[in-house]
Amino acid sequence: MWQIETQFSEVIERVPGVKSFRFPRKGLNLRYRAGQYFYVTIVVNSKPLVHHFSFSSSPAEKNYIEFTKRITESDYSRTLDNIKPGTWALIEGPEGKFTLPNSKRKLAFICGGIGVTPVKSMLNYVKRKQRPLDCLLLYSNTNPRSIIFKEELDELGKEPNITIHHFVSSSSQQLKPEYHNGYINKASIEKLVPDYKERL
């Protein structure tokens, strides 16, 4: 494991209420596997507080590591919401076994909202490292405007071995054909993942 005192290098608003936070990686031995998580300590009300977050960056990205969080009313979250580049942090990791298999496999991911962060990391790694994995993602959000990493996921979905299906559970507007209306359920899985018994 590594433990490093560092500074926030960039803050990116992904969608309203969701932000990505980056730390510099270049020149540091911050090894991790796509799908793992790490710990971030920041100063909250003059005291150090720690939380763990999945990497939303890919290990193939050499310049930074990144986590992405939905901003809530907790003291830690509100402090993060106002973090500026250059602010001190302590990062420790990595941990977790929710990672890609080493052998050639067919995979299916099902997630909603902020739960996409480790999946985005894994899919990006599959693309960048040309891993022989057949990946399919069913991703649910409230409306099209709340889809985190929409542009990046759409780019990943252009890869021959990556398929992305967006579900929108609550929308009053007319949806484009690229969206599935409603929730992910048994019927939608059987329709869109007919080979689900073959997939991890």
What is the element layout, followed by pairings?
Blueprint: E1 2-7, E2 10-15, E3 18-24, E4 37-44, E5 47-54, E6 64-70, H1 75-81, E7 88-95, E8 106-112, H2 117-128, E9 134-141, H3 150-156, E10 162-168, E11 179-181, H4 186-192
Parallel strand pairs: 8-9, 9-10, 10-11
Antiparallel strand pairs: 1-7, 2-3, 3-6, 4-5, 4-7
Q: Low-confidence segments, ≥5 residues, pLDDT <50?
A: none
| Intertermini distance | 28 Å
Helix amount: 10-25%
> What order do the SSEs take from the amino end to the carboxyl end, as H and E?
EEEEEEHEEHEHEEH
Biggest sheet statistics: 4 strands, antiparallel
What spatial order of strands do you see in the largest sheet?
A: 1-7-4-5
Strand content: 35-45%
Number of strands: 11
| Oligomeric form | single chain
**Rg of Cα set:** 18 Å
Average predicted local confidence, pLDDT: 95
Could you say which overall geometry the principal axes of the C-alpha atoms support? globular
Q: Please report the number of helical segments.
A: 4
3D structure, described in words:
By secondary structure, the chain is of the alpha/beta class. The protein has four helices and eleven strands, in the order E-E-E-E-E-E-H-E-E-H-E-H-E-E-H. Strand 2 and strand 3 (18-24) form a beta hairpin. It is globular, with a radius of gyration of 18 Å. The protein starts with a strand and ends in an 8-residue tail after the last helix.
